[in-house]
Amino acid sequence: MDSATGTSRPAWHRRLWSAISLVVLFALVEYVVLPKLSLARESLHRVSELRPIWVITAATLEAGSLVCYSLFSRALLGRSRPRFFWILRSDLTGYGVSHVVPGGAATATAIRFRLLVLGGADPADVTATVTAEAVGSPLALVLIAWLASIPALFLQTATPAYLTMFLVGLAVLACGALAVRERSQLERFAARLVRAVQRRLPQRVRPWLAATALRLRDLLADPTVRTAFLVWATLNWLLDAAVLWTFLAVYGDPISPIPVLLAYCAANLAAVVPLTPGGIAVVEGVAISGLIGFGVPAQTAVLAVLSWRLLQFWAPVPVAGLCYLSLRAESRFLERR
């Protein structure tokens, strides 16, 4: 089910995308992940030497990253937003579901939409929020990668990887600046696009789409929302990247955060294409290869990335289950009241 329009995709489209995802997943596991795991087996004894203080530090940073994402959601939801603790549990539920369910992103969006509306948020506000997050969060990641590439390009050896990251980030930011400058023309184009889409949709869906488009326009024109993009969306990525840097420092020598940020951004941008649930195997392969390419020892890179993904990808899954159960129990209690 397409969460934006309420229409189902053709069956052949879903089957084709599932087949492509499986082929890509098997190729990544066979040629990228498994060869790296052999390096990890040779140095597993180093995991047992990990002190609890470092695990607590990494877990605290990861929790801070998730809280920042929910603060970002709260800023976008506007006046109809539920309590922050409700938003946080809804976000955690969607985050965990996206990691374990096939077609995780669409399923997680639908569950998160239902929970936020159940908490009192307006459906149009939730749809506009999800749409804005889908655009704003990757843009914040591109901004981090571009800013990290500047000192890497001018203060270190100007490798092709640094130059590519700098040019891609510059192109994206230039498009953003052009869109802001020509906002009136962009709004007219968006209005024509919405009208063209409306004519091809069922009559019952058209008012809902128009209301969502207006809410999204007002949302992006709000200075508070633009500040939330720069602060909470950026902190969400930076705190998560700090977890990876922490494990790299624990398993090896502390390294410059610049190559860590570049490898981290490349891995997460590669996961934007939903080939596998939560980017599994894609993120690990790109992050490990990127860190090795930036001079991190192979064993250190493998252990650090696997430890980071264990905390970032798998640890929230049981927490998501508990959050969903608590939300359902609370909603039933409120209905009885």
Write structural notes for this entry.
- By secondary structure, this protein is mainly alpha-helical.
- The protein has one domain.
- Helix content is 81%, strand content 0%.
- The chain has 14 helices and no strands.
- Helix 4 crosses helix 14 and helix 6 packs across helix 10.
- The longest helix is centred in the middle third of the chain and has 33 residues.
- It is globular.
- The two termini are 33 Å apart.
Spatial separation of the terminal alpha carbons: 33 Å
Radius of gyration: 21 Å
Overall strand count? 0
Pairing-aware structural class of the strands and helices? Answer: mainly alpha
Into which percent range does the helicity of residues fall?
A: over 70%
Number of folding domains?
1
Globally, the shape reads globular
Q: Count of DSSP helices?
A: 14
Main beta-sheet annotation: none
Strand coverage percent: under 5%
SSE sequence, one letter per element: HHHHHHHHHHHHHH
Which residues sit in consecutive blocks of at least 5 with pLDDT less than 50? 1-8
Mean of residue pLDDT values: 76
